[in-house]
Amino acid sequence: MNQEIRQLEPQELWNKFADLNAVPRPSKKEERVIAFMKNFGENLGLDTVIDAVGNVIIKKPATPGMENRTTVVMQSHLDMVHQKNNDTVFDFDTQGIEMYVDGDWVRAKGTTLGADNGLGVATIMAVLESKTIEHPAIEALFTIDEETGMTGAKGLKGGLLTGGILLNLDTEEDDEIGVGCAGGIDVTATRIYNEEETPEFKIGYKIQVKGLQGGHSGMQIHEGLGNANKIMNRLLFDGFEHYGLRISEIDGGSLRNAIPRESTAIVAIDAVKEDHFKMQIAELGVAIKNEFKTTEPDLEILVEPFEIPEKIMDLGIQEGVTRALYAAHNGVYRMSADIPDLVETSNNIARVIIKNGNIKISCLTRSSLESGKDDLANTLRATFELTGCEVAFSGDYPGWAPNMDSKILKVLAPLYEELNGEKPHVAACHAGLECGILGQNYPGMDMISFGPTIKGAHSPDERAQISSAQKYWKFVLEILKHIPKA
């Protein structure tokens, strides 16, 4: 199957991507891909180092005639988001990604593709391996754990790199040159609650929200996509008053940086109000599906009889947590007043787990302003604390402030226009890139971000555009030729 991918142009890029995608590489379990990359560098006879946290650095001398150019750090992250459809049988810990060509797109069979950031990694590998590409001295930086905390970038010590320019290959629109990004913080609400025996007059039901697109909780947060956790909460809200609904458990969402696609709740209702329950849930489901008919055409809300749960939540806690989830902000909080169409601050209610006397609600809050990030994080904290939850902040990482006077930007922008006959879109993005973190230990480094077009990142609908990869590859080669003198 992946042999079809290896025939695509440019073959040097797609072959490296296929090699990489044969290696399981979940965040925080990167041992195999670190070893793979170490062997790759050493087999090329290049200086290869694994730092204290697991980042891999491979250094390649300049090609003849390019020795006087500024050393370039080419950077991408090794890990990938693991998401699959419910009906897909796949073990991310042991299997390589199964890819196929769909017109002008490369997709995976029911899973994330790993183009984020695998195409960036493959690009750097192809440059390192090439004997014909002109380039200055290169320091290839492959970071770990970008998707679940950016601990690789955070752990990179100063002094390991000497490059004056950093090319981050983690942008997902090929007409965009990134000059800034949002920072982020994890907001996690927890609480212990008492469980009660389910009364005899109750019957069990399972409610499922599924079929949502999901996607990147930064890059796609403004698209009006459905959040399975918020939709589920609407279905459960005020259920006790109407038909004695009591929650036994909820399992919604998955990763902090992925918009939740699915949620499942096990509930008990009054047996005598079963018909009323089914009618009202059906009516609400139709209304919700109508709201999302454009952005989420495949949304499903399934309600079916289920075995009676043995335990249910304390009613007071149930009422409090459903109200807190209703009040908690999800989506765009503020647009930038300075950069047109840029989301400044947002939140993703990423994960809701209620089971066995424990509540855990996980959010990822992003902002290009530290003050905005703190404001929304405290808004969420107050919301959840009002219902008795303990709220913890973790994984805080800084944004990357735009520098419109960047010397490498002044190289890339006219070069893009010369190659493509149009100006690039120079912008900051609402995703979390590693540039802001790397800049803390390398404050003098001139940074820029770009990449090929990738759609649906962080979801099983992830796909990479073949024609865009060809356009991007030409751009990379020209950039390396035009790196300014040191």
From TrEMBL:
Keywords: Cobalt, Hydrolase, Metal-binding, Metalloprotease, Protease, Zinc. GO terms for cellular component: cytosol. It comes from Neotamlana sedimentorum. The keyword Translocase does not apply. It comes from the Bacteria. Belongs to the peptidase M20C family. The lineage of its organism: Bacteria, Pseudomonadati, Bacteroidota, Flavobacteriia, Flavobacteriales. Its EC number is 3.4.13.18. GO terms for biological process: proteolysis. Its cofactor is Zn(2+); Co(2+). This is Cytosol non-specific dipeptidase. Gene3D superfamilies: Zn peptidases. Residues 209-293 form the Peptidase M20 dimerisation domain. It is an enzyme of class 3 (hydrolase). It holds the Pfam family Peptidase_M20. It catalyses: Hydrolysis of dipeptides, preferentially hydrophobic dipeptides including prolyl amino acids. GO terms for molecular function: metal ion binding; metallodipeptidase activity.
